[in-house]
């Protein structure tokens, strides 16, 4: 087994067990057993459960930022704003579905003050980066108030995500993303 394979198994097992049982009810021993690695190997990669939680969060953030990078100004210039926005929303929907377990778990972290404290720094850094990327996309598209429109767009996207992940069963995600595209396809209005 490659060293990275063991680490990947630990990260996946940690996320699954944290999401299923909760952070506090999950032990490193349970994670190691689920990953089919030794407890010692788990501690070789992660000093604590908190370090494992941060690593899970950072890995998911990399995935989220990869999707968001498709809004980069050079892509807006080469593909055009409407195509960039449409493609971003399509990738966002796919990513939301693919990362549903993590994103639902992330929501639960917001209501647990001790865990929120652990991920708050990286979460704020990610939010600032996402806001800057979104603002740059709207600025490149010629929006009069790119920061305001970026904040509103992210808020609406967050609301759609929240409804999809935790509020409504059979939420019409694709239809809502199409509607969001319709609302933002003309950034000048």
Provide structural commentary.
The protein is elongated and about 55 Å long. The longest helix is centred in the C-terminal third of the chain and has 28 residues, at 113-140. By secondary structure, it is mainly α. It is built from 10 helices and no strands.
Main β sheet profile: none
Element-level helix/strand string: HHHHHHHHHH
- Kindly state the number of beta strands: 0
Return Rg in Å. Answer: 19 Å
Percentage of residues assigned to helices: over 70%
Anisotropy-based shape: elongated
- Show unreliable segments: none
Mean of all residue-level pLDDT scores: 91
Quaternary status of these chains?
A: single chain
β content, as a range?
under 5%
Distance between the termini: 56 Å
Count of DSSP-assigned helices:
10
The computed structural class is: mainly alpha
Question: What key attributes describe this structure?
Answer:
189 residues, mainly alpha, 80% helix, 0% strand
In short:
This protein has 189 residues and is mainly α. The protein has helices at residues 3-21, 28-35, 39-45, 49-68, 73-79, 81-98, 100-109, 113-140, 146-167, 173-184. 25% of the residues are buried.
SSE layout:
Blueprint: H1 3-21, H2 28-35, H3 39-45, H4 49-68, H5 73-79, H6 81-98, H7 100-109, H8 113-140, H9 146-167, H10 173-184
């Amino acid at each position: 087994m490659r060293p990275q394979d063991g680490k990947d198994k630990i990260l996946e097992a940690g996320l699954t067990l944290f999401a299923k049982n909760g952070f506090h009810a999950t032990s490193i021993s349970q994670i190691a057993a689920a990953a089919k690695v030794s407890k010692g190997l788990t501690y070789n990669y992660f000093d604590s459960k908190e370090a494992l939680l941060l690593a899970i969060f950072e890995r998911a953030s990399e995935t989220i930022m990869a999707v968001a990078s498709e809004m980069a100004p050079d892509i807006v210039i080469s593909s055009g704003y409407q195509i960039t926005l449409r493609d971003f929303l399509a990738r966002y929907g796919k990513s939301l579905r693919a990362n549903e377990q993590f994103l639902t778990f992330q929501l639960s972290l917001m209501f647990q003050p001790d865990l929120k404290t652990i991920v708050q720094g990286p979460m704020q850094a990610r939010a600032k980066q996402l806001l800057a990327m979104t603002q740059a996309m709207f600025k490149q598209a010629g929006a009069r108030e790119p920061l305001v429109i970026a904040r509103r767009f992210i808020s609406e996207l967050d609301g759609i995500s929240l409804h999809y992940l935790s509020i409504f069963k059979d939420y019409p995600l694709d239809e809502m993303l199409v509607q969001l595209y319709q609302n933002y396809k003309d950034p000048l209005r």
